[in-house]
Amino acid sequence: KDQVFQPSTVASSEGAVVEIFCNHSVSNAYNFFWYLHFPGCAPRLLVKGSKPSQQGRYNMTYERFSSSLLILQVREADAAVYYCAVCTLSGGATNKLIFGTGTLLAVQP
Amino acid sequence: DAGVIQSPRHEVTEMGQEVTLRCKPISGHDYLFWYRQTMMRGLELLIYFNNNVPIDDSGMPEDRFSAKMPNASFSTLKIQPSEPRDSAVYFCASSLPRQGNTEAFFGQGTRLTVV
A99, B43: Cβ pair inside 8 Å? Predict the structure, then answer.
């Protein structure tokens, strides 16, 4: 079954580097996507790709079946749910994103 | 662009009633997705459309759920009859994949409560 796995919670302290790990069992998957979600708001894309990449404080590692999101200099305001997703071809032509269950990041001052 | 627009933001209904959720995708996007968010399952893909045509509805949980996309700028997700276990946040997203680089843009979601 096509699934994306990630821890349910991760705890960190302000100023630290936090890593959120993700792996998948999705056939024909390409590209990882990391989304940030604050309750009541639209999930928004942080970083994506099929190779290691960086967007500001957000770094993404890449292996064929796994990826990690690293958040540098974590702040209390980063406390939110982080979703990992992979893109897969469906029916040979179309694209769909399969999401994990989300990781709640708790940040201690 | 105003982004993906969903309505209503909140919906409270009684068990057995029909519920209709609405979505306006970003203009020009040719893919539209409906997701359901719960604590246990995260973001589950229910159904998605390409150029207004349903491509994959394997995530639709039961026949009580149906979705339509009558034109490029509007889609509905309907639950009839609704049940308490349908309570969740429902997200609509749209995308314009190019060269395999799919980024889905999400709306703010509709929080559905069935009592």
Answer: yes
Longest dimension (CA), chain A: 48
Nearest of A88, A89, A27, A35 to residue A60 by alpha carbon: A35
Please give the Cα distance from B96 to B1 (Å, whole number): 14
B19-24 and B74-79 beta bridge pairing: antiparallel
Q: What is the pLDDT of residues A31-43, one digit of tens each?
A: 899 999 998 899 9
pLDDT tens by residue, B4-30 = 999 999 999 999 999 999 999 999 999
HSE-up of A58 (CA within 13 Å, CB side)? 15
Compute the nearest-CA separation of A52 from chain B (Å): 15
CA distances from B114 to B18, B22, B25, B45 (A): 10, 17, 26, 20
B70 DSSP β-pair partners: none
